[in-house]
Specification:
This protein has two domains: 148 residues, Rossmann fold (3-Layer(aba) Sandwich); 175 residues, Rossmann fold, CATH 3.40.50. It contains eleven helices and nine strands. The strands form two sheets. A five-stranded parallel sheet has the order 7-6-5-8-9. Strand 1, helix 2 and strand 2 form a beta-alpha-beta unit. Helix 2 packs across helix 11 and helix 5 crosses helix 11. The protein starts with 16 loop residues before the first helix and ends with a helix. The mean pLDDT is 93.
Length: 339
């Protein structure tokens, strides 16, 4: 597995199409291993992964922990409520404490954008080789979710050989609270790197016009875009206009905890305009899958019957795929970056 240059995984804007191909190929290999009662692979024996989650999580933390255990790593979890943060210890000192205990990989989630990047820069100045894996920072980025969504879509289109080519020319519609979604931002970098056409759909309060320029330049601080020819994002306000011709539809949670103004008239009116149901999905003109990163506000972004329909909903498949994708990331950090 050559060509992997990332010591840290902070934002998918830094990934080339080859990087995505590497993760998908490796995830597919890990996905095909027996799961129940699986023998552990020895790849990360003697390595320690520490999860530092300063924000709530159901799927991401458990999935990272399982992934690390399946590769024989030791796993340690920091719980902010019962830690010395309450005594005034800084976040950097907290991270250094875990590095002093031998952590090789820090998986970090924080409500402030930029925290994993700052930690990575700080740790790079120290003597130890440590990787920082961003598990979601504010509205900025959620790379492992973007990768597992990409893997799920690539497997849907090409079950035996999921690769970036499986996405080329596909139209993927992302609907809902794009403004507050780090998942949507990561998906934009991932899907566009694979040649997909992304259509964003939502009301102006949750999808400001400036998202049309999202892929026009790499984020501040990043030198150059590793992907030369991204298809620009298209914004469509009405779901009825966005859905015809779609190959897959991804819905996003309304992130009420991050909404500090009244951005919606009511949940009912949101569901009427942007909620997905079987009837709405039929507007695509062919049977297409629905994705959602979870947690779902049942009956708001997605009708319960659609969420529960195994013929259409890939939501549980996304959860399943999170484990091999995170195994692939941990494996690459440990074996290719030498942490
Ligand atoms: C997402 C997150 O935390 O950003 N969830 C997840 O990781 N599966 C999306 C969300 O919270 O809506």
């Amino acid at each position: 597995m050559s060509g992997w240059v990332h010591r840290h995984v902070i934002d998918l804007s830094a990934f080339s199409t080859d990087d995505f191909a590497t993760v998908l190929e490796l995830a597919q290999r890990f996905r095909s291993l027996p799961v129940v009662g699986a023998r552990r692979l020895p790849a990360l024996q003697g390595r320690l992964m520490t999860t530092l989650f300063f924000e709530a999580s159901t799927r991401t933390r458990s999935s990272f922990e399982l992934a690390a255990k399946r590769l024989s790593a030791d796993v340690q979890s920091f719980l902010p409520g019962s830690s010395s943060l309450a005594k005034g210890e800084s976040l950097l000192d907290t991270a250094r404490t875990y590095v002093a205990m031998g952590a090789n990989v820090l998986v970090v989630r924080h409500s402030c954008a930029g925290v994993p990047q700052i930690l990575a820069e700080h740790l790079d100045r120290g003597p130890e080789r440590v990787s920082v894996l961003n598990a979601g920072d504010g509205l900025h980025s959620h790379p492992s979710q973007g990768l597992l969504d990409l893997f799920t879509l690539a497997r849907h289109f090409q079950p035996d050989a999921p690769s970036p080519a499986a996405l080329r020319g596909r139209r993927i519609v992302i609907v809902g609270d794009v403004l507050h979604s780090r998942v949507a931002r990561s998906n934009l970098w991932a899907l566009s790197a694979c040649g997909a056409e992304v259509v964003l759909c939502g009301p102006p309060t949750l999808l400001p016009d400036c998202f049309a320029d999202f892929l026009a330049a790499p984020p501040p601080g990043q030198v150059g875009d590793p992907v030369p020819d991204r298809i620009p994002v298209r914004l469509v306000r009405r779901l009825e206009e966005a859905l015809p011709g779609a190959d897959a539809v991804m819905t996003l949670r309304l992130q009420k905890e991050r909404m500090h103004q009244h951005l919606l008239t009511s949940l009912e009116s949101y569901h009427r305009s942007y909620g997905l149901s079987h009837e709405r999905l039929a507007l695509c003109g062919r049977p297409v899958p629905v994705l959602h990163p979870g947690p779902v506000n049942r009956g708001v972004e997605l009708a319960g019957a659609l969420l529960d329909d195994p013929e259409r909903s890939l939501v549980e498949e996304q959860v399943r795929n999170g484990i091999p994708v995170r195994m692939a990331l941990l494996y690459l950090l440990a074996t290719e970056s030498g942490v």
